[in-house]
Structures are given as structure tokens and as C-alpha cells.
């Protein structure tokens, strides 16, 4: 009888301990889903096209990786370089079709095939903040040789405003 009481007592303690634990967040989410998200209203697809380097990403070992966004003039980009949307860098290949105003794209490969939004780009298209509405990834891109601390700080502020966890998006 005493064993049964002890076993019941231990089971009760374990149940109470489990109630006090916080459920883990989804591994991929780096964005507060309650935060509003916006994309760049004044977006010029042709000016965005070209070579970019990753300045900040939640994917380890992606800092400095290159990405090519070749605008075809008809509504999509040919993508090349390194995909920094997963847990490890991967080959970036495929197309990203413009799907709406404000720099919104749908990739056919890469980026987890999630919608890509240009959240912000400076007026000279030197620094850009990109992310997904789901919050699975975000990145700050810079033109090679054009990185400026003040513009990268502005991109970080935009990511923060859109609910991204800046602690998880490193340089």
C-alpha cells in the first residue's frame, strides 16, 4: 500500500512540474506572429536586381555569402548563390516571381518555397531587409563594398518593427 501512495505522490509531483514548464517555440520561427508585417511600398524590381551579400542571418556561417538576383524584366528573378533561410547554408537556384506590390515574391525553389518580402531597402538599393510573413527567416543584404553601419542599423530597426527577434539574426 505504501508503494502505491508513494508512486501516486511522485506522479503528482511530475505532473505539477510539467504544468510549470513553458512549451518550446517552433524551431524555425524568429518572428512574433502577433506583430504586423509590411513590405517596401516604393520598390523597383530592376534596381533590386544584381549581386548581394548576406550581412545578417539566423543561419550560422551565412555572413558574407553571396546571392544573385537577376531581373528578367518580365516579372521574375533568376536566383543564384547561397540560400540562408534554413538551419545550414544551401545552394540557391531557381526563380522568384514577383507576386504583388512592395517587393513580394514567390520562389519556385530555395527559401523553403515561402513567400519572400522585401521589408525595406534604402533609396540607393545598397542595403535591404528581407523576411517571410511566417517568420521562418529574415536576412539583411548589402551590395558588395556598399555596406554602411547606419543603413544596416536601419535594416535592423525595420526587422525589429516587423517582429523579428534580433538576438537570433546575427552578423
TrEMBL record:
The lineage of its organism: Bacteria, Pseudomonadati, Pseudomonadota, Alphaproteobacteria, Rhodobacterales. Keywords: Lipoprotein, Signal. Residues 1-17 form the signal peptide. It comes from Rhodobacter viridis. InterPro entries: Calycin (IPR012674). This is Apolipoprotein D and lipocalin family protein.
Amino acid at each position: 500500500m505504501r508503494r502505491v501512495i508513494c508512486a501516486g505522490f511522485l506522479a503528482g509531483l511530475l505532473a505539477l512540474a510539467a504544468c510549470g514548464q513553458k512549451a518550446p517555440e517552433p524551431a524555425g520561427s524568429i518572428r512574433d506572429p502577433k506583430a504586423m508585417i509590411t513590405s517596401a511600398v516604393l520598390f523597383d524590381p530592376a534596381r533590386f536586381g544584381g549581386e548581394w551579400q548576406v550581412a545578417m542571418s539566423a543561419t550560422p556561417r551565412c555572413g558574407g555569402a553571396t546571392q544573385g538576383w537577376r531581373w528578367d524584366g518580365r516579372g521574375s528573378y533568376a536566383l543564384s548563390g547561397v540560400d540562408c533561410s534554413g538551419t545550414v547554408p544551401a545552394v540557391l537556384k531557381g526563380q522568384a516571381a514577383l507576386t504583388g506590390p512592395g517587393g513580394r515574391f514567390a520562389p519556385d525553389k530555395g527559401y523553403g518555397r515561402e513567400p519572400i518580402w522585401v521589408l525595406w531597402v534604402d533609396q540607393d538599393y545598397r542595403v535591404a531587409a528581407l523576411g517571410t510573413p511566417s517568420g521562418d527567416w529574415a536576412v539583411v543584404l548589402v551590395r558588395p563594398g556598399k555596406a554602411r553601419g547606419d543603413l544596416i542599423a536601419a535594416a535592423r530597426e525595420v526587422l525589429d518593427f516587423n517582429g523579428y527577434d534580433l538576438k537570433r539574426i546575427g552578423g
